[in-house]
Amino acid sequence: MKYLAEMTFAEVQEAAKEAVVLLPAAATEAHGPHLPLMTDVIIARAMATAGARALESRGFTLGVVAPPLQWTPAAYAAGFPGTMSLSPATATAVLVDALMSFHRAGFSRIVIANAHLDPAHIASLNEGVSRAREAGAVVTFPDITRKPWALRLTDEFKSGACHAGQFETSVVMAERPDLVRESIRVGLEPNPASLSDAIRAGKATFEAAGGPEAYFGFPAKATAEEGLETLRILGEILADAVVSDRDGGVTA
Q1: At what angle do helices 119-134 and 88-105 cross, to 10 degrees?
Q2: What is the pLDDT of residues 138-149, one digit of tens each?
Q3: Which residues lie below 8 Å from residue 71, measured CB to CB, with a gap of 6+?
Q4: How confident is the model at residue 251 (pLDDT cuts 50, 70, 90)?
Q5: For the segment 62-82, what is each residue's pLDDT rounded down to a tens digit?
Q6: End-to-end CA distance of the chain
Q7: In the list 47, 89, 217, 223, which could disulfide-bond 113, CB 3.0-4.6 Å?
Q8: In the predicted model, what is the mean pLDDT of the chain?
Q9: Which domains does the chain have, with CATH numbers?
Q10: What is the pLDDT of residue 252?
Q11: Does the pTM exceed 0.70?
């Protein structure tokens, strides 16, 4: 496994033909009073790294983790300081340019490791993937908000009450415990309001959805052990999606 930004152009040129490149997709947005704005970036990068290792364990020559995309539509969190939100059209254009850059570099396949669940963001990913495929790029994008992938994740995730809750907090505790405001986390009250239900009901902000502090779920129950297991599953999802695409299955 290698990180693209640490390689030289000559190393990329030599490796790309037999390598899979994994692109973390995330947002810079509010994640409660206990997690950093870069929470999704941490999760997506760790997911991509786990996916690269899972692919190599299955016989793929090399997994290369690209620098993350970390600005995207994040309108639900726009009322909280620090959130960076792009228009869907801008995000789609950036994604297409990134995917085509990897395609021109000669990578055999591009895999998107997404950790941001905003519907506008996911729509922009699907649009960007569609455009890149039409232009000849080989792209795999397992949408973890949909079956079969969502069914493999935690009960909190499946409930929809999972923004900055137990699911995401556990991963950050496993990857970057130094960035978790632990004294705040342990005192946070449960917020079982389902963000996904609120989105379907037409709510357009975290505040309207029942998350006045930009978190949903049960962050006080988070553990690093759960985070490590979640990352293992996320890595396996990426590897399974690549194998399914390669063998003619459907992942998105």
Answers
A1: 40
A2: 999 999 999 999
A3: 27, 28, 84, 85, 86, 91, 94
A4: very low
A5: 999 999 999 999 999 999 999
A6: 25
A7: 47
A8: 96
A9: 2-246 (3.40.50.10310)
A10: 46
A11: yes
**Cβ atoms of residues 54 and 239 within 8 Å:** yes
**Is 170:226 a contact under the CB 8 Å cutoff?**
yes
- pLDDT tens across 87-135, in order? 999 999 999 999 999 999 999 999 999 999 999 999 999 999 999 999 9
| Residue found under tokens 């922009």 | 124
Tokens of 214: 């930009």
